[in-house]
Each structure stands twice: as structure tokens, then as C-alpha cells.
Write a structure and sequence with these properties.
Blueprint: H1 2-11, H2 23-35, H3 37-58, H4 64-86, H5 99-113, H6 123-136, H7 138-149
């Protein structure tokens, strides 16, 4: 949860880049963390539920028009994310990774886990993902997402 991440960043005095003390950078992190709930999280989770869990629970194939509509909704917020949050910066809050980047990538891995490679035709998003993975550590990133990436095999 966002509240837990913020608590941990404050309690353990994590490096400043995770939740910056600079008010403008912190406002950027807070802005993204507030926006993402109904946008990236909402649309990404909806695609995951629609494409993976619903057919698994109902035993019925997914109507293609339903998947198309849900994918379209996600694509709209991905475009907003690139234009409004990433812009031409390496990370959401500027030149260093923050909790906003971590939360964003975790949420974007749900659609990837459902078999939708949202990075494939978005070079800016793919490059940002690469930077976040490197900042966290590729091995840790893969370990953290191992379960969700197997979901499409259900």
C-alpha cells in the first residue's frame, strides 16, 4: 500500500531519492501516487482481471470486444503517464528513482503478466522500465515479479 511505503520511507530514513525532501520533487511523487490509483492501477488491474482471472473463474472465453475495450482504456492512461509524468525525464520525479517509479512499474507488470506487452511499442516507456529495473537491481526485480509473470500460463 502507498501508506505503508511512505511510512517505511520515513521511519527508516531511506535515501532521499525514494521520497524526496525537496518539496517540488516530493509533490511530483505525491501527485503520481494519488493519480495512479484509478488510472494505472485501475486500468492495469482491470485488464489483468478481465484477461486472466475472469476466464479462469467462469471457464468461458473472453469476448474479443471486451478485451479490446479494456486494452483501449489502459492505452489512454499509458499515454497520459508518458506525457504528464515521464515527459523527457529519466524518472517521474527527475533524475533519480523514487517510490512513484517503483509503484508505477509494479502496477504495469500486471498487464504484462496477463500477456499484454505494453512496453513493446512504447520506446520511452521501455527505456524508463530499463532504468527502474537497473536502479532496483534486475535480479531483485525478476524475483519480485516472478509470480505475476507466470499468471498468463494459468
Amino acid at each position: 500500500s502507498i501508506a505503508i511505503l511512505l511510512y517505511l520511507a520515513r521511519k527508516f530514513k531511506t535515501p532521499d531519492h525514494w521520497y524526496p525532501s525537496d518539496l517540488q520533487k516530493r509533490a511530483r511523487v505525491d501527485e503520481y501516487l494519488s493519480w495512479q490509483h484509478v488510472n494505472i492501477r485501475g486500468k492495469g488491474s482491470k485488464l489483468f482481471l478481465t484477461k486472466v482471472l475472469l476466464p479462469l473463474l467462469t471457464g468461458q472465453p473472453l469476448p474479443p470486444e471486451k478485451l479490446e475495450a479494456v486494452t483501449g482504456e489502459l492505452n489512454v492512461v499509458l499515454k497520459q503517464f508518458e506525457e504528464k509524468f515521464l515527459q523527457d525525464k529519466p524518472f517521474i520525479a527527475g533524475s533519480e528513482i523514487s517510490l512513484a517509479d517503483l509503484v508505477a512499474l509494479v502496477e504495469l507488470m500486471q498487464p504484462v503478466g496477463a500477456g499484454y506487452d505494453l512496453f513493446e511499442e512504447r520506446p520511452k516507456l521501455a527505456e524508463w522500465r530499463r532504468r527502474v529495473e537497473e536502479a532496483v537491481g534486475k535480479r531483485l526485480f525478476q524475483e519480485a515479479h516472478e509470480g505475476i509473470l507466470k499468471a498468463k500460463n494459468l
